[in-house]
Amino acid sequence: xxxxxxxxxxxxxxxxxxxxxxxxxxxxSPTKGKTLIKEIQEKQLDSSEMIKSAMLTFYSxxxxxxxxTEILTDILSSNPSIMSYNCILASYAxxxxxxxxxxxxxxxxxxxxQPNGDTITIILNALSHSGMVEEAIKIYSTIETLKIxxxxxxxxxxxxxxxxxxxxxxxxxxxGDSTEAILWRTLMAGCRKHNNIEIAEKIFEILTKIEPxxxxxxxxxxxxxxxxxNNTKASEIRGLMVQQGIKKIPGIVYSxxxxxxxxxxxxxxxxxxxxxxxxxxxxxxxxxIGAGYVSDTRWVTNAQLISEEEKIDSLCRHAEKxxxxxxxxxxxxxxxxxxxxxxRVCNDCHNAIAYISKEMNVEIVVRDANRYHHFKxxxxxxxxxx
Length: 386
Ligand SMILES: [Zn+2]
Ligand SMILES: [Zn+2]
What we know:
binds zinc ion, Serine Threonine Protein Phosphatase 5, Tetratricopeptide repeat, repeat, 6 strands, 19 helices, RNA binding, alpha+beta, PPR_At4g14850-like_plant
């Protein structure tokens, strides 16, 4: 769109910049976003509350903590609207800063700032990702006192709070006899996190009836069977999926370098600089293995792989590891890598990336389907709760 504006007689205004900036944030495109912000500042459009909030979202989504804090402080000092509060809370939620989100929420309520329905979804989400179950229950039970009409998204995120914490009975009670697929899917994701076969099998029956073409129950249940070492059952479920003509969603990771976006698909060798990347990956593996990393083959999801060697090799080909190796090929001395993944990062990649951050002295941020993981010096900001 930016390129389109430059060849057409269109002068971009606040709304244009707003849309473009949010696009750069969602596509995790820091280079293009920074250029836009420079233009916004040159045109002195950065005093608008909407633009400030969009800049906050951009910096938060591209993990520029310093700038995020600067803008956040500026917004909070100027009597912001609920829209800005929600952007700040969402930034905390995205980075697993549940306590900060809760403190801000409490101060809003104390200062008579009226939250809206989105505020509740966002705060519950922040608490869910930080494992703050008690606090989430408290807020969920006061929705109506806060003069907010309870919505389906509030219920979904509360199911997520329970499921993520392994409180399956509470989650099931809340869902009751609902036929809303999203509620059951959320609970199923919790089963995968805790590898709870019993409940996953039950939900599989429910979900495949409600949404027969959805691949997620097949994949999640088959992955749980694999984790428990039951290859036969895992193969059965995958076979059933093929029979129904349901396609698996591949793991895709995107990374940006100097304004160019690269795409990596798990298991595929179709990416630029294959040989160089493969050599770099081996070099990185040697380093992290030397530091104590061991491949956790319980996270292999392909039931056809039998030998330990094949399983380890398949873990090496997860898109996150390839994208990181590729980033080092492009810039060997880099200090930061930013990745976006369409699926939940697997535990083996999570562990490997923590080691890589320390051994290669690099900050790695992975935005997966659930949240942001900020790896630094061998540790992740999620404290292994995701
Ligand atoms: Zn992985
Ligand atoms: Zn993490």
